């Protein structure tokens, strides 16, 4: 109750209890015993905050030692805050962990290729050009051009766009096909109807094994397909609802209302294309609208040397009897090793 009263009085969000540091804090206080006195306002905002900063700095320094040992990837994430400022976060990733480098306010900067290249160069020089293997950004035209400039400046550093962003755009294009958009619209109407009428949602929630229907978000096109899959998974529950007296006896029944994947991406996309062709029994007039989208997005932006080489060097594929050493994959490996 003492902890509860503290939370209620200070208006601390309940999800603070989910912090991985909550229980260790209680354990530390219990270990000291009744003589423990909490930190003062000034101690927390000055001394302890400074100590926490030093801990973070030591953690980053421990990662830096591994950047030279294993190599690392620099990632840039552009976003806009509530004040509509254009911010770019720079992070460094290696197999031992992720480190935040800095955030740049690029609101008053012309984000052309040369400017972006300079921003990345500052981070690369701080990390050490000899330690950087890979740079990842989104695949906007200015970032593509900046990536080429970076490779010209640092021959050992390769640029690729974000695989998640590329696949997201690919799914956006597929979801824009008329029959897919129509299907998604109908599925959305089902979801909206269910969640707008608690009388039916409550009935469904009492079903054995019920899980909430996934609903799409504006900025994530993949959720369109996740939602369709979720609706399909709930098919039996939804069918049971519409034939049940609970639904048919209601007037509403007639009145509607976010491990390294580099070594797998190349193979996954190829398998996706092959699966689409098989689904349409290899009839090009049926599958070409889908494979064209994949070619336009994937082959143009992400079918790159690093992905092909990672595929070649992945033991899970290399030692598989079905592994094929096609010219593009082998040439990619040679090109990379010659740098």
Helices and strands in order:
Layout: H1 2-10, H2 22-32, H3 41-70, E1 72-80, E2 86-94, E3 97-105, H4 113-127, E4 132-137, H5 141-153, E5 158-161, H6 163-175, H7 178-196, H8 198-205, H9 222-233, H10 235-243, H11 245-248, H12 262-279, H13 284-302, H14 305-313, H15 315-318, H16 327-338
Parallel strand pairs: 1-4, 4-5
Antiparallel strand pairs: 1-2, 2-3
Strand order of the largest sheet: 3-2-1-4-5
As residue ranges, the low-confidence spans are none
Major β-sheet profile? 5 strands, mixed
CATH superfamily of the largest domain: eRF1 domain 2
The number of domains: 4
Secondary-structure-based class equals alpha/beta
Strand composition percent: 5-15%
- What radius of gyration results from the CA coordinates? 26 Å
Mean pLDDT: 85
Count of DSSP H/I helices:
16
For the record, the CATH class of the largest domain is: Alpha Beta
Order of helices and strands: HHHEEEHEHEHHHHHHHHHHH
Name of the CATH architecture of the largest domain: 2-Layer Sandwich
Terminal Cα span: 64 Å
Output the CATH topology of the largest domain. Answer: Nucleotidyltransferase, domain 5
Which overall shape is indicated by the principal axes computed on the Cα atoms? flat
Helix content: 55-70%
- How many beta strands in the DSSP annotation? 5
């Amino acid at each position: 109750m003492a902890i509860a009263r503290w939370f209620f009085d200070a208006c601390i969000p309940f999800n603070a209890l989910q912090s991985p540091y909550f229980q260790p804090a209680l354990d530390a206080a219990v270990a000291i015993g009744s003589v423990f006195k909490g930190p003062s306002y000034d101690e927390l905002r000055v001394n302890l905050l400074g100590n926490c900063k030093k801990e973070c700095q030591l953690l980053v320094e421990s990662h830096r030692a591994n950047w030279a040992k294993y190599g690392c990837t620099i990632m840039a994430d552009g976003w806009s805050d509530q004040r509509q400022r254009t911010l770019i976060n720079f992070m460094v990733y290696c197999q031992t962990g992720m480190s935040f480098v800095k955030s740049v306010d690029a609101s008053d900067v012309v984000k052309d290729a040369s400017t972006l290249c300079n921003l990345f160069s500052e981070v690369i020089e701080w990390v050490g050009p000899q330690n950087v293997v890979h740079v990842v950004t989104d695949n906007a035209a200015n970032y593509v051009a900046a990536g080429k400039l970076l490779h010209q400046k640092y021959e050992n550093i390769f640029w690729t766009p974000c695989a998640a962003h590329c696949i997201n755009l690919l799914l956006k294009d597929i979801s824009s096909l008329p029959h897919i958009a129509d299907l998604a619209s109908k599925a959305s109407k089902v979801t909206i109807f269910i969640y707008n009428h608690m009388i039916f949602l409550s009935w469904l929630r009492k079903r054995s094994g019920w899980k909430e229907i996934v609903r799409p978000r504006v900025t994530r096109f993949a959720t369109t397909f996740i939602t369709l899959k979720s609706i399909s998974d709930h098919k039996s529950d939804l069918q049971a609802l519409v034939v049940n007296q609970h639904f048919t006896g209601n007037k509403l029944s007639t009145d509607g209302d976010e491990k390294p994947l580099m070594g797998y991406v190349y193979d996954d996309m190829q398998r996706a294309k092959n699966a689409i062709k098989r689904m349409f029994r290899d009839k090009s007039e049926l599958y070409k609208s889908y494979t064209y989208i994949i070619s336009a997005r994937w082959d143009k932006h992400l079918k790159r040397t690093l992905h092909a080489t990672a595929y070649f060097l992945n033991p899970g594929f290399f030692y598989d009897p079905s592994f094929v050493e096609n010219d593009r994959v082998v040439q990619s490996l040679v090109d990379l090793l010659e740098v």
